[in-house]
């Protein structure tokens, strides 16, 4: 083993962990608030990614692409929540199955529009160059992804602990009925969280394309990784999403580097251990 | 004679009549429909009795298919070894998955089976040395027996139909047995069943392994029907196809899964002539089912619809 490879794989793992945190944080909050697991999250990643990358290709503006990708995914999420999920509110399984159906339709529609060939993100030259991190050179844009995820974590933490909205969300997660009787509009709050989560999925789709190229089947892989993250971390817990993303990202990266055929098997290992010894996840609560 | 005997005789007569009347292509599609009916039955056994919606039944079938392809087509082991080995592998996977998912509730069970199933799917195309990756393993064939080519769609139809009818009958008996009632009881009120002294976890585990065995049998037929084993039967879209068949037909009845599979495979066959977007069609069917008739066709309140009353909204 040489040290450079080790550091490089570590940094790749952190990049993946950053992307997974951006994906899983919204997913886990929505689950905590309304017990709805959005299985179309991977499809929203793909939707935001395709649309965002197309905008970048046509306007040469990365920022515009990221925002557009996020907005399109958010529109999808809000539409799904308002038009479909509301009709079966309270029936957890029906809601989950509806999100699967929507995910299938979106992914198949994207395949029809954009075709099956892989697409990567055209980055401006200054972001494409490697940056000197002291220990080694690493692509600048990936460093920015890690910084963005950290910033998102801090923002989430501030919103959750310091603002009224955060307090309302925490109250809703803890005890939905009591929160509602205190005058907190949990369904509206949920629509907001759901929209924000979808926005983040779309953003992750655009910036993640610099790491994994967009293609058929990526929605399911991304969804699976996000689910592993929140199963490890505990459903409904932001801290869990962070720790779960770190474990998943690093394990996946090192395993892909040293035993590419079994990368997923090694991912399976921590998840299995946690399910056996702590079924509610590292930071999850037993209900 | 009892009513049940009449129904069974009617179904057998119908299957024989279809064999005599239908063309080769229709028979080939019927074979596929019966395989999916078995998969949907495996799904419904868990969904209807325990309220567990599994997205890994196709994975269990795929595992059995890979065992057939690797041991049979690549290593050339005898059929008498390969086929039991395939079903046993499915059972072993089901047992392992069963232990991991034992304590999960409805939605977390769905998530867990999705994650577990998709891991095996990803492994199936990453582990190229064993599975042949995306290209898969081809040349999976049944032998000639007493001058009959078992790969002939019509002969295959006879074998498959026999197995399908027998398995459906077995599950029908199971639903009416004490064990079947215990499963329903667990879905209804787990605490009460435990307080009454029933082995709740053991019963659930047994049901999961049984469903895995049915999926394993379906996998054996699937791989011989396709003649090639690739990762695609393990993909999420296949799991959703099976789920949609069960939800469309009605996963709480015995004949619902068969009805759903037949409708869905016919629909897919029809749609394939016009467009490649059959997954979109499946997604639409699933969404409409959940919004309009969550208990499926077999439990849709047809009679109250005819009387003009408002259909009672059923819950999943």
In short:
The complex is a heterodimer of chains A (287) and B (316). Chain A contains 12 helices and 2 strands; from the N terminus they run αααααββααααααα. Chain A is mostly helical.
Question: What topology emerges from the helices and strands here?
Answer:
The complex is a heterodimer of chains A (287) and B (316).
Chain A lengths: L2 H32 L6 H19 L2 H23 L7 H23 L10 H4 L1 E3 L4 E3 H23 L1 H11 L1 H6 L4 H23 L9 H16 L4 H21 L4 H15 L10
Antiparallel strand pairs in A: 1-2
Chain B lengths: L2 H19 L2 H27 L6 H18 L4 H23 L4 H21 L1 H4 L5 E2 L5 E2 L2 E2 L3 H24 L1 H11 L1 H6 L4 H27 L1 E2 L6 H14 L6 H17 L5 H15 L9 H5 L10
Antiparallel strand pairs in B: 1-4, 2-3
Helix pairs in contact in B: 1-7, 2-7, 2-10, 2-11, 2-12, 3-4, 3-5, 3-10, 4-10, 8-10, 11-12, 11-13
- Through-space gap between termini of chain A: 45 Å
Strand content of chain A: under 5%
DSSP strand (E) fraction of chain B?
A: under 5%
Overall morphology of chain A: globular
CATH class term of chain A? Mainly Alpha
- SS summary, helix count of chain B: 14
Helix and strand composition category of chain B: mainly alpha
Assign an overall shape of chain B: globular
Could you report the average pLDDT of chain A, rounded to the nearest whole number? 87
Whole-number total of structural domains of chain B: 1
Strands of the biggest beta sheet of chain B: in what spatial order? 1-4
Protein architecture, described:
- The complex is a heterodimer of chains A (287) and B (316).
- In chain A, a hairpin with a 4-residue loop joins β1 (130-132) and β2 (137-139).
- Chain A has helices at residues 3-34, 41-59, 62-84, 92-114, 125-128, 140-162, 164-174, 176-181, 186-208, 218-233, 238-258, 263-277, and strands at 130-132, 137-139.
- Chain A has 287 residues and is mostly helical.
- Chain A has a two-stranded antiparallel ribbon.
- Chain B is mainly α and 316 residues long.
- Chain B is 73% helix and 3% strand.
- Chain B has helices at 3-21, 24-50, 57-74, 79-101, 106-126, 128-131, 153-176, 178-188, 190-195, 200-226, 236-249, 256-272, 278-292, 302-306; strands at 137-138, 144-145, 148-149, 228-229.
- In chain B, the strands form 2 sheets. A two-stranded antiparallel sheet of chain B has the order 1-4. Chain B has a two-stranded antiparallel sheet with strand order 2-3.
- In chain B, α2 (24-50) packs antiparallel against α10.
- Residues 310-316 of chain B have low confidence and may be disordered.
- The A-B interface holds A 35, 37, 39, 84, 87-88, 91-94, 96-98, 100-105, 107-109, 112, 217, 220-221, 223-224, 227-228, 231, 235, 260-265, 267-268, 271-272, 275-276, 279 and B 51, 53, 99-100, 103-104, 106-108, 110-112, 114-116, 118-119, 121-123, 126-129, 235-237, 240, 243, 247, 276-277, 279-280, 282-284, 286-287, 290-291, 294, 315-316.
